[in-house]
Design brief:
The protein has 119 residues and is an all-alpha fold. It contains 6 helices and no strands. It has a domain of 50 residues. 3% of the residues are buried.
Amino acid sequence: MPTKPTSLAIEDLDSKNLYTLNAINRVQIERERHAKYSLNDLVLELSHFLDEEVINKVEMEIFSNKMKQEWGLSKDFSAIETRNKEIGMVLNELEEVAWRTAGRMTEKDFQNVKRMISI
């Protein structure tokens, strides 16, 4: 697929790229049904629900395939990325603290709300 904005449509995709797009969870593109859709629009729509984890998995799969080709590794080879369990727990705790802190209203927030509704 092109890396820059393009005038191509889904009908212009080869079978390999169409298969790759359909391999994404919750994506089902049919050449006959979606032929005239622009690739630019498709990429924009996909970017709305692809999270960091999905992108990391795709990048890791690309990396694994590249390593298989360059080093002649077996087809069973798969690179994986793991994080220390303690780091994950700390990040989850920080995320929870940030979420709880964001939900608190300060006196300044109360004053702003009162001013907005003219109390």
